Amino acid sequence: MGAYILRRLLLVIPTLIGIMVVNFTLTQFVPGGPIEQVLAQIQGEGDVLRGITGGGDGGQAEEISGGGASDKYVGARGLPPEFIKELEAQFGFDKPPLERFLNMMWNYLRFDFGESYFRSISVVDLVIEKMPVSISLGLWSTLLAYAVSIPLGIRKAVRDGTPFDTWTSGAIIVGYAIPGFLFAVMLIVLFAGGSYWRIFPLRGLTSDNWEDLTLIGKAIDYFWHIALPVFASTISGFATLTLLTKNSFLDEINKQYVLTARAKGLTEGRVLYGHVFRNAMLIVIAGFPALFLAVLFGGGLLIEIIFSLDGLGRMGYEAALQRDYPVVFGTLYAFGLMGLVIGIVSDMMYVFVDPRIDFERRVG
Length: 364
Prior knowledge:
Blueprint: H1 2-27, H2 34-53, H3 58-65, H4 81-91, H5 97-109, H6 123-158, H7 163-177, H8 180-191, H9 215-253, H10 256-263, H11 268-280, H12 282-286, H13 288-297, H14 301-306, H15 312-322, H16 325-353, H17 359-363
Helix pairs in contact: 1-16, 2-3, 6-9, 6-13, 6-16, 7-9, 8-9, 9-11, 10-11, 13-16, 15-16
Membrane topology: Multi-pass membrane protein
Protein name: Microcin C ABC transporter permease YejB
Keywords: Cell membrane, Membrane, Transmembrane, Transmembrane helix, Transport
C-alpha cells in the first residue's frame, strides 16, 4: 500500500501542473483582463464626470475619455502611456506569459498565493474569510444526506418491490429531478416569509445579535439560519446516495455467503448488519471524502446567492467576472491539490473499510 500511495502522490505533481497550464493558457485568449477592468472603471468615472459637468468643457471631457485609442487596450483612450505601463507592471503583465506562469507556480509551490487585485487582501485571508459558509453547507449537507440515505436505502433493499419501495422511489426521483436552486426558491416562498410562513430567516449565517447570545443560543441561531440552505443543497445528493445504497445492498443480499448465513440460523438483523453491511457500504463510505469536497466547492454558488451567503462559490464567481487572477488561480491550485489528495484518501478508505482490497496486487 505504501508504494501505491507514493506513486499516486508522484502523479499529483504532473496532474496539477497540467490543470494549471490549461487554465492559464485559456485566460491568455479571454478578452477583458484585469487591466481592462480597471480601465473600464476609469472610463465609467469619466462618463459620470462628463454627465455632471454637462459636457460644457470639451477639453476636460477629451482629457478624461477622448483622444487617441491604444491598439492594445480599447478602453485606454486619452490615458497617458506611462499610466498604462504602470498598470501592467502592477499586475505583472509587463513580463511574457511563460515567465509569469513560472513565477506563479514557484510562488504556489511555497503556498504564496499573493494578493487579490481588487480587494487589497491576501488570497489566503480571503478564502479563510469565506470558508465558514462553505464548510457549513458542505459538512451538514453531506452528513444529512448520509444520515437519511443509508437507512432509507437499506430499508428499500430489504423491502424491494413492495409498495414502500415504489412510493419512496417515486419521491426520490421527483427530488432528484428538481434543481437545487428551484427547491431553494420554493423553500423561501413557503418558510422564509415569501408568501406563506416566516419561520426561518431569509439571509445570513447568524443573527445581528449573535455575539450577545449564550453558547446554546448561538448554536440554535446557527442551525436556524443554516436549515434551509442545507436542505436545499442536500436534495439531489440525497436521491443519488439512497439509490446507490439500495443497489449495493441488493447486490450483496443475493450472494452465496448471505444464503449460508441465513441457513445457519442467524437473525435477519445479524445477517444484514453483521455480514452484508460492511461489503455493501464499501463504495458508499469510501466515497464520503470526495462527496464532501464536491458539495463544499462544487455546488454552492446558486444556493449562496439565493440565501445571501458569502461563501467560496460566490467568491470564485465574482473573481472570474472581475478577472481577479490571483484569486482564480490560487483557489484553483489549492482546491485542485485538495481534490487530488482526497482521491488518494478515498482509496485508503476502501482499504480501511475492506482490508481484502489490495491496490498493490491490482497494479502489479
